[in-house]
Amino acid sequence: MFFEGDRIDAMREMILADTIEAREAALAKLLPYQRADFFGIFKALKGFPATIRFLDPPLHEFLPNSKEQQMDLARKLSIPVEKIMHRVHELHEFNPMLGFRGCRLGIKYAEITRMQARAVLEAAADATKAGFKAKPEIMIPLVGFKKELDLQVEIVHEVAAQVQKEKKVKISYQVGTMIEIPRGALTADEIAQTAEFFSFGTNDLTQTTLGMSRDDSGSFLGAYQEAEIMKKNPFASVDQTGVGQLMQIAIEKGRKTRPDIKLGICGEHGGDPDSVKFCHKIGLAYVSCSPYRVPVARLAAAQAAVADIKK
User: Fold this and answer.
1) How distant, in Å, are the alpha carbons of 10, 11, 261, 278 from that of 6?
2) pLDDT at 258
3) CATH number at residue 209
4) Cβ-count burial of 102 within 10 angstroms (0-12 exposed, 13-18 middle, 19+ buried)?
5) Mean pLDDT value across residues 44-62
6) Is a pLDDT exceeding 80 seen at residue 75?
7) 269-290, pLDDT tens digit by residue?
8) Phi and psi dihedrals of 84, rounded to 5?
9) Is residue 202 part of a domain?
10) Looking at residue 6, what is its pLDDT?
């Protein structure tokens, strides 16, 4: 999801809402922006699949922290600044990356998932009617329990049925998940009963497996590499022994349940040559990374494929 200008104001209204009715009203303002974004994506991709991750960051990231910014927002939304300050306090978490984010947002606020699903699927329907092939792959983040995914997928399918009836068009879509916490990897056989694809979120999978914060590890990683505890920065190149083993477990278990499951990774590791070659070795179909790292990733993937042929 992309947030700027009027849409960030609507997002903030949604976060500050006191009732489900107010939250749904704010989400209704967001819907057309999201739908237009996704329509543009489907049009540009010309029939290639579009993987769309549902809302992942903690909600506090969308609200201002300084008193001056909070006062500006209060004036803009015509609400008391105290309401914003109170909500910021409510959303404070000691460890937000392990807190109220990812699919947990959609579990508590099903209306958020419902709006995102409608935006994606209405855009897909509109693109199809306009002559563009749309293949949305909806990705539910931070799943560790099958039931979490079941509840979110149920909403997506419910909205899909509504949209197809309203738009009178068949939409081809899939719903999968990010494997980014160890429990998700270890129970991949259960999760694959519902998920049609896995994308390994190697940034968070590394953090949760190693118990290290990517943002705070700079103070000691250098010493760890000097002491040869780690030969490489695990946030730049996949820790093949630890994190990699969890990935292999998830692949094996996922394929046992769903032999044709689509598997890949997303995260900065997708642009690291050694990580790309490792992903090829364990049988992943694709890697995803920042745009500027795509040339390196493609070269590494080609080298891994050629090395396979020579064997």
Assistant:
1) 6, 9, 38, 43
2) 98
3) 3.20.20.60
4) buried
5) 95
6) yes
7) 999 999 999 999 999 999 998 8
8) -70, -45
9) yes
10) 81
| Contact between residue 127 and residue 39 where contact means Cβ atoms under 8 Å apart | yes
Residue 114, pLDDT above cutoff 90 = yes
Q: Give a yes or no: residue 197 inside a domain.
A: yes
Q: Does residue 192 sit within a domain?
A: yes
pLDDT tens digit string along 4-15? 668 899 999 999
Between these two residues, 210 and 3, which has the higher pLDDT value?
A: 210
Structure token digits, residue 200: 């390994």
SS (H, E, C) the chain: CCCCHHHHHHHHHHHHCCCHHHHHHHHHHHHHHHHHHHHHHHHHHCCCEEEEECCCCCHHHHCCCCHHHHHHHHHHHCCCHHHHHHHHHHHCCCCHHHCCCCHHHHHHCHHHHHHHHHHHHHHHHHHHHCCCCCEEEEEECCCCCHHHHHHHHHHHHHHHHHHHHHHCCCCCCEEEEEECCHHHHHCHHHHCCCCCEEEEEHHHHHHHHHCCCCCCCHHHHHHHHHCCCCCCCCCCCCCCCCHHHHHHHHHHHHHHHCCCCEEEEECHHHHCHHHHHHHHHCCCCEEECCHHHHHHHHHHHHHHHHHHHHC
Give me the number of domains the chain comprises. Answer: 1
**pLDDT value at 311 more than 90:** no
Residue 5, pLDDT score: 67
Segments forming the whole domain that contains residue 242: 180-311
Residue type, 137: E
Average pLDDT over residues 180-187: 98
Confidence band for 310, pLDDT divided at 50, 70 and 90: confident
What's this model's pTM, rounded to 2 decimal places?
A: 0.93
The torsion region of residue 95 among left (phi > 0), alpha (psi -120 to 50) and beta comes to beta
In-domain check, residue 216:
yes
